[in-house]
Amino acid sequence: MRILFFGIAKDIVGKATVEFQNEIQFPIQVGALKAELIKKFPALGELSSLAIALNSHYATDDMSVSAQDEIALIPPVSGG
Question: What is the residue-averaged pLDDT of the chain?
Fold first, then answer.
């Protein structure tokens, strides 16, 4: 599974894309995947919010993720 990181999430992880092969058991729900990513990259848990997109669509925590899906982590955005 390929995970894309944007904004501060990219800074926390240190790169824009990470490939996960055997580290995560599939299928998995979005909420559980988010918890796994926070375990791997604890600073992600310090963000005020963290949206996840599943195949280019915003996902809810109860949606199922397979190994073939593309995931994007979208941190809070501010601006004026």
Answer: 92
CA distances to 17, 25, 32, 43, 71 from 14, in Å: 9, 24, 22, 12, 17
> How many domains are contained in the chain?
1
Block residue for tokens 């904004």: 7
Q: Is residue 10 part of a domain?
A: yes
The pair of structure tokens assigned to 64 is 């199922």
How high is the pLDDT of residue 79? 58
Residue 13: C-alpha distances to residues 5, 8, 64, 79 (Å): 8, 9, 23, 22
pTM of the model: 0.89
